Amino acid sequence: MRLVLISDTHVPKRARDLPAPLWSAIDTADVVIHAGDWVDVALLDRLEARSTRLIACYGNNDGPALRARLPEIAHATLDGVRLSVVHETGPATGREKRCTARFPDTDVLVFGHSHIPWDTFAPTGLRLLNPGSPTDRRRRPTHTWMSATITTGTLHDVTLHHLPPRTP
Predict the structure, then answer these.
(1) Which residue ranges does the record assign to the Calcineurin-like phosphoesterase domain (predicted)?
(2) Model pLDDT for residues 129-156, shown as the tens digit of each residue
């Protein structure tokens, strides 16, 4: 099962559209995961139309139209892997401990908000993944997204993808 993980797309405020390499990955993925801050419902419509399966939540910059269609926290089990998706997890310090307490029945937590890629394990085995942002890199050198694979109940091949600089 091929996964694409994205967050903090902020379309159309930070970019007119998602980068072409990301759309290509979305078109071939089995599951697309979006951890909030869409900004406009049009991107949700497009991702729903192009994704085989979309698992998503809303973020702090998402208004009533997106909040009416998306949960604050999304949960799914993919081939035995218990997944949760939330936008905000709080400060980096203490994140693993907080998330272990908040998501005790989760194997993989996908989150966003900071635009900073993150890939760690809590002592309990909970894996925390933040794909960064494909459109708003903030203080990071590149725009990013993640891919991963699930096979027989195991998440593996987690890869952080760096996108080339956008041209105006």
Answers:
(1) 1-152
(2) 999 999 998 888 899 999 999 999 999 9
